[in-house]
Design goal:
Length: 307
């Protein structure tokens, strides 16, 4: 199997390495030359290319797939970079080609983009990707929306890249990123709850060792989780998180989840308040903010602000 990856950043490069470890050939493109070179050095199964034109040509070489079934995965930052890449590709791909948006796009953008892509017969999949960089490298988690008839053609790719039971065909286009949006809303709420617990501990009359507490909770407790493991790691590095500011940016997905809950008139107070607490964190430094910042940094995003 062979596919092209556009975007060799934190997620893209790890997905590429994961793919070649599963004997999948990858044509790799990034605007950054060093990123392309790093990929070329990793494996002979990776063909780095300098342009999108070259990418499409290479994809057709020695591929067991017909030219009309090229698979192109876009893994660049959500928003303008993804949207403009998809707009460019919509003029370059042909009927039958498969285009995957694996970033954190708004599902509404994908529905809009699909109008043009579907007209041209390009099969578009919106894929929510979770599990952070370690998941991308060693077994990720994928929520996949798109054309049901085309899905079996790309299922082997996701079977290879995902951890066991770590991928799901979720339905028509839009359903992948919709599900990821809700996943990320839940993620906001879970991180906030963990952080608030530590803030109460910090104000308590007891002098807890937070690394030890997180470790304890990771061993058999109801709240054991990857997020709690990240808390344990972060407290191991900085026992009271004194070295960082409790400021947490947001990429938009929490906001979209809250907007969706408002549109559907479904109460989602925890997620809504978690989003607002992130906004508040940018205004003042708190223990809660420090914990969420440390946790969020632990799975690959938003650089820590240091004092
Ligand atoms: O998809 C993710 C993990 O599941 C990303 O971390 C996503 O960016 C989360 O949003 P934010 O950056 O606002 O925390």
């Amino acid at each position: 199997m062979k596919f092209a990856m556009i975007g060799l950043g934190k997620m893209g490069k790890n997905l590429v390495k994961n793919a070649v470890d599963h004997d999948i050939e990858v044509v790799a493109y990034d605007l950054n030359r060093t990123a392309r070179q790093e990929m070329a050095a990793y494996s002979s199964k990776i063909t780095p290319v300098d342009t999108l034109e070259q990418l499409l040509t290479e994809l057709s070489v020695n591929s067991e797939l017909e030219r009309s079934q090229r698979i192109v995965w876009v893994m660049v930052p959500a928003g303008t970079p993804t949207n403009s890449t998809i707009a460019t590709l919509s003029n370059m791909l042909s009927a039958g080609d498969i285009l995957i948006d694996g970033g954190n796009s708004n599902y509404k953008d994908n529905l809009e983009q699909n109008k043009r892509l579907a007209e041209k017969g390009i099969k578009f999949f919106d894929v929510g990707t979770s599990g952070g960089m370690s998941g991308a490298r060693h077994g990720g988690n994928f929520m996949i929306g798109g054309d049901k008839e085309t899905w079996p053609k790309i299922e082997p790719l996701f079977e290879a890249l995902a951890q066991k039971n770590g991928y799901l065909y979720t339905g028509p286009l839009g359903s992948g990123h919709y599900l990821k949006m809700i996943h990320n809303g839940i993620e906001y709420g879970m991180m906030q709850a963990i952080a608030e617990g530590f803030e109460i501990l910090e104000a308590s009359p007891y002098d807890y060792d937070y690394e030890a507490v997180a470790k304890l909770w990771n061993n058999g407790s109801v709240i054991r989780s990857w997020l709690m493991e990240l808390a344990e790691e972060q407290f191991a590095k900085d026992p009271k998180l004194d070295e960082i500011l409790g400021q947490v940016q947001a990429s938009g997905e929490g906001k979209w989840t809250v907007e969706e809950s408002l549109d559907l008139e479904v109460p989602a107070p925890i997620i809504a308040l978690s989003l607002m607490m992130r906004n508040r964190s940018l205004q003042s430094d708190t223990m809660t903010g420090k914990v969420v910042a440390a946790l969020r940094n632990g799975f690959g995003g938003h650089d820590l602000a240091h004092k």
